[in-house]
Write a structure and sequence with these properties.
Radius of gyration: 19 Å
Length: about 210
């Protein structure tokens, strides 16, 4: 299946809806307070109670709007994720359409590693537990990788290979390698390129 010709709509991480003015103000206060506290102390060191207090809203309001700290972190990342998806679907190659699938897979991983470098703790908070795999962003990433793998080799098990490749881009592993082991971002990108090259055969000369 050709990825370029496949119907593929950009999902909304937080579907837009009409909100009352007070609800919209509460949402913005919560996001601003969460962003500030996460930046100051790290997403893993801030409780929902502290966010509600800093935002000046009740805890019930916070949980009704976002449900959990993971969903709140995902909301903070939603703009960056939309930009990332736009690059995948309509951007310039090799991240966007127009490059061979192996090159696109390499570009995908390198771009995501850049996102991890900038927002690893926020991503970790957003992907805690099995909920990570049901999140719209992860489903988009999985579909993208599956389609590229299938384009490169229609006989491969694209579903399982996609899961294996995406496991290497988990926030928890990234934080461990970057901060616990001191491995450079450049080395992580080279390891991703090698992983893709060993998974996807080079295209045969025309």
């Amino acid at each position: 299946m050709s990825y370029v010709s496949s119907p593929f709509e950009l999902p909304q991480i937080e579907p837009e809806s009409f909100e009352r003015a007070d609800a919209a103000r509460n949402r913005e206060r919560i996001l601003c307070a969460a962003r500030r506290l996460f930046d100051e102390r790290g997403a893993g060191c801030v409780s929902m109670d502290e966010i509600a207090e800093a935002a000046g809203v009740g805890k019930g309001t916070l949980f009704r709007r976002f449900g959990s700290r993971a969903l709140l972190a995902a909301a903070l990342l939603s703009e960056r994720e939309r930009e990332f998806q736009e690059g995948i679907i309509r951007g310039e190659p090799p991240l966007g359409p127009g490059a061979p699938p192996r090159e696109r897979l390499i570009a995908f991983g390198e771009a995501f590693l850049d996102t991890l470098e900038a927002h690893a703790e926020l991503l970790l908070a957003a992907e805690t537990g099995p909920a990570r795999f049901a999140h719209p962003a992860y489903r988009v990433h999985r579909l993208h990788v599956m389609l590229l793998l299938g384009e490169a080799d229609p006989e491969c098990d694209s579903e399982m290979l996609a899961e294996a490749l995406l496991a290497a881009l988990g926030a928890e592993l990234f934080i461990y390698l970057r901060r616990g082991r001191g491995i450079s971002l450049a080395r992580l990108k080279e390891a991703w390129r090698e992983q893709v090259r060993r998974t996807v055969a080079a295209p045969e000369p025309a």
